[in-house]
Amino acid sequence: MNDSRSEIQQTIASINEAWRSGHVDAMAPYLHPDIVMKFPKFAGEVAGKEHLIAGFKEFSANAQVIEYTESDQQIDIAGNCAVVSFRFDMLYERAKYRERSKGRDLWVFQRESDRWVAVWRTMVDLSEAREQKQHPFGIDGPTGAK
Prior knowledge:
- The chain has helices at about 1-20, 50-60, and strands at about 30-40, 45, 65-80, 80-95, 95-110, 115-130.
- By secondary structure, the chain is of the alpha+beta class.
- The protein has a single domain (about 1-130), classed as Roll (Nuclear Transport Factor 2, Chain: A), CATH 3.10.450.50.
- The chain has a 6-stranded mixed beta sheet with strand order 2-1-6-5-4-3.
- The mean pLDDT is about 90.
């Protein structure tokens, strides 16, 4: 089981490194073709590897991660199934706003011959705080009016 635990830790680290480094396609070998991601509070879903990767690409293209930390990683293994969860705290910036997102990322993996692949994901205990970006000189709009 320790070998499986190490393999799973490496798999989730590779997935996170792929999106954080902007090389989102590098996560493809770690995702099942039919992976499902449930949105927070189960408000919708993305189904399929291509769609999940597209969502990560959109985020990577339109947001700059300023801070990102993970903690409290937990791995539970039962046969050919594993559940991985960890707390995250991320500050990122888009064109018009900055947002702090905190919560727990939860992934389900299945063993396929010689590797672990992600089959399901969601985020729980999510809290988000958004603030509008300010012009560096305190100027609002194209006229420069305050």
